[in-house]
Design goal:
4 domains; three-stranded antiparallel β-sheet; alpha+beta; 10 strands; 272 residues; 24% strand; single chain; 7 helices; Tetrahydropterin Synthase, Chain A
C-alpha cells in the first residue's frame, strides 16, 4: 500500500509530459486553411514542399506551423483620395477579392509574412488606383468610364503582384464620389445633352415623315398619270359594256337604257 504513491507519481508525471509532447507535436488545420512549417533545426521556413493541408498533423515538438487562410477574402478600401486628370480631388471606394497562392504559401510567409495584406496588397491598390484615375476627367469617372477604370485597376494590380505570391480574383469600384459642385455641373450638362439628343430625334422623325409623304404623293401622281394615259374612249366603252352585262345578270330590279348616256354609254335606272 505504501508503494502505490511512489509508483503513481512517476506515471502522473509521465502522462503530463506526454500530454505536453502531443500538444506540441500535433496541429489541427481547419477548412479553408493551410499551414507553413518552420523547422527550427533545419532550414527554417519550408518553401520546397506543399503546405500542410486541412486536418490533423504530427510534427516535431520543436517545429512551428503558421496557419494561413487560403480562401477567397475581401479587402475594402473606402474613401480613398485620388486626383482626376485635371487635378480635382475624387473619393473612391474599392473592394479587392484576393487569396494567397496555395502552392507558394511558404514563399509568401518567408518573404512577406502573415501581414502580407498591409505590406503588399494595400499599397499596390492605392498606387494603381491613383495612377488609373489620374488618366480620366471627373465627367468620365462619373458616367462612362467606371467599368474601364475598374478593369484597368484590376489588370495593373494583377501584373504588379504577380511575383508577390498573391492571387487577385477581382477589383470592384464600389463608388466614385465627386465634389458637390462638380457633380451638379456634370448632371446639368448630361441633362442638356439628353434634351439636345431628344430634339434631334424629333427633327429626324419629322424629316422622315415628310420624306415618306413626298414619296407617297409622287407615287400616287405617277399612278394617276399612267392610269389617265391608258384610259382611252374605246377602253371606257368596253368597261361600260362589261358593267352593263354584270348588272343585267343581277337579281336586283333595274331599268337599263342602252345608248342613252354620253358617248353612247348605257344609263342605268334603278327602281328607286
Amino acid at each position: 500500500m505504501q508503494k502505490l504513491p511512489k509508483i503513481g507519481l512517476p506515471i502522473i508525471l509521465l502522462a503530463f509530459i506526454l500530454i505536453i509532447f502531443i500538444s506540441k507535436a500535433s496541429i489541427n488545420i481547419g477548412y479553408g486553411e493551410a499551414g507553413v512549417l518552420f523547422r527550427t533545426f533545419g532550414n527554417g521556413v519550408v518553401v520546397d514542399e506543399p503546405p500542410l493541408g486541412e486536418g490533423f498533423h504530427i510534427i516535431a515538438p520543436w517545429n512551428t506551423v503558421y496557419v494561413y487562410n487560403v480562401k477567397q477574402q475581401e479587402f475594402f478600401e473606402g474613401n480613398m483620395s485620388v486626383l482626376s486628370s485635371n487635378g480635382l480631388d475624387i473619393s473612391l471606394d474599392v473592394s479587392v477579392l484576393y487569396q494567397p497562392k496555395y502552392d507558394e504559401l511558404g514563399s509568401l510567409h518567408k518573404t512577406k509574412g502573415e501581414n502580407y495584406v498591409n505590406i503588399v496588397l494595400i499599397p499596390q491598390i492605392r498606387a494603381v488606383a491613383r495612377s488609373v484615375v489620374g488618366r480620366y476627367t471627373p465627367e468620365q469617372l462619373y458616367s462612362t468610364k467606371r467599368d474601364a477604370i475598374q478593369n484597368e485597376i484590376f489588370e495593373e494590380t494583377v501584373k504588379n503582384v504577380e511575383n508577390q505570391h498573391i492571387q487577385i480574383n477581382a477589383v470592384l469600384v464600389r463608388d466614385v464620389t465627386l465634389p458637390g459642385s462638380i457633380k451638379a455641373a456634370i448632371e446639368r450638362k448630361l441633362s442638356q445633352e439628353q434634351e439636345a439628343l431628344e430634339y434631334e430625334f424629333r427633327l429626324e422623325k419629322a424629316k422622315q415623315e415628310a420624306e415618306r409623304q413626298r414619296i407617297d404623293a409622287e407615287g400616287k401622281a405617277r399612278a394617276n398619270k399612267i392610269l389617265s394615259a391608258s384610259l382611252t374612249d374605246k377602253i371606257l366603252r368596253e368597261k361600260g359594256i362589261e358593267a352593263t352585262i354584270r348588272l343585267s345578270e343581277s337579281a336586283n330590279s333595274k331599268v337599263i337604257v342602252i345608248g342613252s348616256g354620253d358617248e353612247g354609254m348605257p344609263i342605268i335606272l334603278g327602281n328607286n
